Amino acid sequence: MNNYRYDNLHIDVVLQATGIHGWSCSHGWVNVLEREGLLNRVFTPIAGWGAEEPIHDDGLFEYLKNPQADIILMPGFDWHSQPLHKTIKWQERWHQSQTIKIALLQECYSAEVVQNTRTWQYQMHQAITNIVPCVDALICHHEPDLDFLQKQVGISLPVIFLPFAIDTEYLRSHQKFSERLNRALFRGNAPRYFTENSYKQRQKLIEVLGQSKNIDIFSSNLNDSKQQIEILQEYVKELSSYKILLNLPSNSQTLTSRPFEIMACGGLLLQNEILGVQSNALFKNWENIVYYDADNPEDLLNNIDYLIYNAELTENIAQKGHELCYQQHTLECRIDTILNWINNQLESKFLDCHTVNRCRKIQLIKNSTDIDSGTLNQFSQPESSNFKIIVDAVFFQLYQTGIARVWKSLLEEWVNNGFAKHIVVLDRAGTAPKIPGIRYRNILPYNYNDTVADKEILQQVCDEEGANLFISSYYTTPTITPSVFMAYDMIPEVMEWDMNNPMWQEKHHGIEYASAYIAISQHTAHDLKKYFNHISIESVTVAQCGVKSTFSPCKSEEFNAFKLKYGITKPYFILVGVGSAYKNSILFFQALSQLTSSYGFDIVCTGSGGLLASEFRAYTSGSIVHILQLSDEELATAYSGAVALVYPSKYEGFGMPVIEAMACGCPVITCPNASIPEVAGESAIYVDDSNIDELTNALCDVQKPNIRNSLIAAGLAQAKKFSWSKMAQTVSYALINASLLFLNLKEINVIIFPDWSQPEELIGLELQRVMRALATHISSEKTTLLINTGNIRAEDAELFLSSVAMNLLVEEDLDITEGLEISLVTNLADVQWEALLPRIHARIVLQYEDEQAIAQIQAEKLASRQLDSLSNQLYVLQ
């Protein structure tokens, strides 16, 4: 390794419990680390599959009390090593050990055959969930696992993709290419692990290829009694004997270790097409590899025949593949990448979450030769846990009404669009809905009698998770972490309820504490502003609710089954939330009683339990009232078959029943109050909320075919305007923007990218010129200067900027704090940059700039302004 000097760096290796894996997943790492002088100790625990404890742990459990290395690597980890992690005892010991611990995942967890096989899926899932509490980061050998682990499994640990690699001491060519057999070789079985579908493509290809005279197919009947080094040597000798070598499909269309091993041994590799953008960028087809269609055996046979009869081309491709492998895909390269990743992106994070008295720190000091940037970019860390939002799912503990529907829908949509990787959901006593792809953290139930303690608990969780932002499903708050308040309605304020109720006191505290606001309708946003004058309407994001696909017109057989189940024999009107006074249900009962044909209708009431209130029963003579608790599917059926939804509410924060009924083809009669017109548009019959005669007439009108059909068509069209995916996107944007409030953006926002590696004198002079130009400009009070801190600590940047400001004050009597806003930009995630860049009007070009940072976030697309002509150009930016 020529790129770094390692100062007293020691690495431990923990090998697989069973020791069955290949050289590239086990002893190859040991061999290379020892060769480079980095190896501290090797552990080889032994355990049977599924055992609770290792038969012997090679001293690992005791060693983890006080590790003597800086890093512990676990190459080749999969479910076989479960005994090292599956018990609380082991997890606590791993977690408490003061060193950086990284697991390298050998198996492809996202493979379709794995996810479609219950036993296999369970084994894989258990392995991953058990390893997470024990390590600080994960490395995937299969690119699709990045997305899968973060979105489907909900892993919030740092994860990167790092392909398999070779140990150049053993995996090398042992025979001249001209002396090799001009044939193709495949060695490997087509086993059925847990399912007959395992290696399905491989099985079909072997059947066809076995009939060719140009292909040798041998089973992998390796002698388990031999030492691993002997097995490796035999394998390498065999690979070196053929010009053409096949890698038939595994259980996933991803890169295994075999492609790199074949290339290292100098053969031409025929590889099935693979998944992954980065994976496909590693090799060029017909230059250093030949890809084939795994579902088309004829394609593979034709390629083999063509290569056999074009010896010069075959040798040329094989040679280029060999050179590429030795240049970029050695274990030495992988170790460099891992150590660089730790040094640049992981070390400070781990130091924050481990105890301060850690005995060692990794010190990687660059020489004059830099790491090959192309190699590093190939295996760059995906954006993951550096932007995190805590969501308190407390509402699910308290109620299961419309707000629960809102949050369940948001979480499901965030899993679908990938935003869930930034979310940690606080599960109060196991009451939150369990959605695959969401990461949960269990905390104590909420207690209105001890809200102070709850705030402290929430802050502790925010601190431990490194949260950027907090949002509650129902009015809880931490003590320090910035919070976004979600406003569903202002019913208690409008209806003048008792504000001494602890629930409403906590609501008002949440509003006062919040940094930003989201409302589920325009009307709710204006009511929030009305009752809390300090809130500007511009600071409230409106994110209207959606409609689940469940709510759609049902088939006649579904409706007939519904009526039969609940004994409904007559046409019926449907009401939702009858028990709440502001729902104004009494108006419906009074109006229905005035219909001469009232006895011809039944009434379906949902959203309330028990008996119908006596004041309502007085108006129901001749009608049967069905008080039902319905699932979403049954509610959709009930809407679909109703004469109409009657919803004479006096106030709604949104009015979800209105839009859900419309989506089911149900006519709606309602009142033009609060947010209802915003939701229903012109697709409903509106009546005055105190006019019985108006509602009576509406109950008649809705039965007329022309009016009814018009309402149904208009309602279906209106419902299409509302979607949970749109709401989820709006809310996520609002949360990201709220995380940028600390930047204090103004009418004009400009950014600079100083090169902090330059001498302080040069940086200071450039910053002084920029600050002087902006602070003395006529638009300075409208301007925010954003300064990217690059790789230096924010504290160091602040201290340096203070000295620059002091120089301007002493030397030029210029106080830059009087008008100009200056904000440091530190450690923003990709999603934050995506939200910030459109709000930046220009980049001020410096003589010495951090070009890597500019390229990384594509800041070169911003309008650029030269410092010399900045005074004139600022006018253009307004």
Question: How do the strands and helices of this protein lay out in sequence?
Answer:
Layout: E1 4-6, E2 11-14, H1 27-35, E3 39-43, H2 60-63, E4 71-77, H3 88-96, E5 100-105, H4 112-115, H5 118-131, E6 137-140, H6 144-152, E7 159-161, E8 181-187, H7 200-209, E9 215-218, H8 228-239, E10 242-247, H9 258-264, E11 268-272, H10 277-282, E12 290-292, H11 297-308, H12 311-328, H13 331-353, E13 364-366, H14 373-378, E14 389-392, H15 395-398, H16 402-417, E15 423-428, E16 439-443, H17 451-465, E17 469-472, E18 483-487, H18 491-494, H19 502-513, E19 516-519, H20 522-531, E20 540-542, H21 556-566, E21 572-576, H22 586-593, E22 602-606, H23 614-617, E23 625-628, H24 632-641, E24 644-647, H25 656-663, E25 668-670, H26 676-680, E26 685-686, H27 692-701, H28 705-719, H29 724-738, E27 748-752, H30 760-775, E28 783-788, H31 794-812, E29 821-825, H32 830-836, E30 842-845, H33 851-856, E31 864-866, H34 870-877
Describe this structure in words.
- The chain is α/β, with parallel strands linked by helices.
- 39% of the residues lie in helices and 16% in strands.
- It has 34 helices and 31 strands.
- The strands form six sheets. It has a seven-stranded parallel sheet, with helices on both faces.
- α25 crosses α28.
- The longest helix is centred in the middle third of the chain and has 23 residues, at 331-353.
- It is globular and about 100 Å long.
- Mean pLDDT is 86; it is low at 1-5 and 347-385.
